């Protein structure tokens, strides 16, 4: 029997709007304007990653997003004292703690909460005490979910990057196995009381199988939407992603709920 699906939200990551802005050095395009446009396209929340090297989103962007948009702001951040201090100052709706390496182009995998348990515990406690929802970006591994739950993080975001890479490479058997791993992790997370999100690398072609997983409550998508916006505009790219998510989620809903 398929579990009754949770509502499905779309968080839009505006990092790469800032990447384009920074390439020229001026004020445009503006990530805050992008956030408003994403909302018009159906976004339920805005995500922004303030990296330690400030390669795209900058401190002032986070301050403005927190102050000027009406959607919930999800601040992606490394597990550092500096980032915790910024989060406590800005007070976003949520933080998502992610692994971060200066040499990487983008986040390459999930946070190892087992190895980082002692370091993460006081950070999670401090953010939670300030009323900030804490999410941990992890691999779809039940052991990682168990430790996330023990640390008191109410939310996990499952890394979908490997699944998307396998799809792009045409490795269908391995892709199916990775999708099954994500499904198992989502079910396990929900069973132990976690709210389960997913993201990284999702496109129009890969979103449906993830959106069909009934335990997934939120998808966070950024780079593809900004790339697609070059051709069709951000509002349309977000709206199309939202449509595909909702269409896929309908498959898992009981007939009475679809009516």
From TrEMBL:
InterPro entries: Aldolase_TIM (IPR013785), PyrdxlP_synth_PdxJ (IPR004569), Pyridoxine-5'_phos_synth (IPR036130)
Subcellular location per the Swiss-Prot or TrEMBL entry: Cytoplasm
Cellular-component GO terms for this entry: cytosol
Active site residues according to the UniProt entry: 49 (proton acceptor), 76 (proton acceptor), 200 (proton donor)
Top-rank taxon, per record: Bacteria
Keywords, ordered alphabetically: Cytoplasm, Pyridoxine biosynthesis, Transferase
GO molecular function: pyridoxine 5'-phosphate synthase activity
GO biological process: pyridoxine biosynthetic process
Site (Transition state stabilizer) location in chain: 157
The UniProt record lists the keyword Zinc: no
Gene3D superfamilies reported in the protein's UniProt record: Aldolase class I (3.20.20.70)
Chain sites annotated for binding 3-amino-2-oxopropyl phosphate: 13, 24, 201, 222-223
Pathway in which this enzyme or protein is active: Cofactor biosynthesis; pyridoxine 5'-phosphate biosynthesis; pyridoxine 5'-phosphate from D-erythrose 4-phosphate: step 5/5
Annotated positions binding 1-deoxy-D-xylulose 5-phosphate: 15-16, 51, 56, 106
Pfam families in alphabetical order: PdxJ (PF03740)
EC number: 2.6.99.2
Catalytic activity: 3-amino-2-oxopropyl phosphate + 1-deoxy-D-xylulose 5-phosphate = pyridoxine 5'-phosphate + phosphate + 2 H2O + H(+)
Functional summary from the UniProt entry: Catalyzes the complicated ring closure reaction between the two acyclic compounds 1-deoxy-D-xylulose-5-phosphate (DXP) and 3-amino-2-oxopropyl phosphate (1-amino-acetone-3-phosphate or AAP) to form pyridoxine 5'-phosphate (PNP) and inorganic phosphate.
Subunit structure comment from the entry: Homooctamer; tetramer of dimers.
PANTHER family: PYRIDOXINE 5'-PHOSPHATE SYNTHASE
Family: Belongs to the PNP synthase family.
NCBIfam families: pdxJ (TIGR00559), PRK05265.1-2 (NF003624), PRK05265.1-3 (NF003625), PRK05265.1-5 (NF003627)
Protein name: Pyridoxine 5'-phosphate synthase
Biological source species: Segnochrobactrum spirostomi
Gene name of this polypeptide: pdxJ
């Amino acid at each position: 029997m398929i579990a009754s699906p949770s509502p499905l939200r779309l968080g839009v990551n505006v990092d790469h709007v800032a990447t384009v802005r920074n390439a020229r050095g001026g004020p445009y395009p503006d990530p805050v304007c992008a956030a408003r446009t994403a909302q018009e396209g159906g976004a339920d929340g805005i995500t922004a990653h303030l990296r330690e090297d400030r390669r795209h989103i900058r401190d002032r962007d986070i301050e403005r997003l927190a102050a000027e948009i009406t959607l919930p702001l999800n601040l992606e951040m490394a597990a550092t004292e500096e980032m915790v201090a910024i989060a406590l100052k800005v007070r976003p709706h949520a933080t998502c703690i992610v692994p971060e390496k200066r040499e990487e182009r983008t986040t390459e995998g999930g946070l190892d909460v087992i190895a980082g348990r002692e370091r993460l515990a006081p950070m999670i406690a401090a953010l939670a005490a300030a009323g900030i929802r804490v999410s941990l970006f992890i691999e779809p591994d039940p052991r990682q979910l168990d430790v996330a739950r023990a640390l008191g993080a109410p939310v996990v975001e499952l890394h979908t990057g490997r699944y998307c890479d396998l799809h792009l490479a045409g490795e269908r058997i391995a892709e199916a196995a990775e999708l099954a791993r994500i499904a198992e992790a989502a079910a396990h997370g929900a069973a132990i009381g976690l709210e389960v999100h997913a993201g990284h690398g999702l496109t129009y072609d890969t979103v449906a199988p993830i959106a069909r997983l009934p335990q997934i409550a939120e998808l966070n998508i950024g780079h593809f939407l900004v790339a697609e916006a070059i051709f069709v505009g951000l509002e349309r790219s977000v709206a199309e992603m939202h449509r595909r998510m909702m269409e896929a989620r309908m498959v898992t809903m009981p007939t009475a709920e679809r009516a």
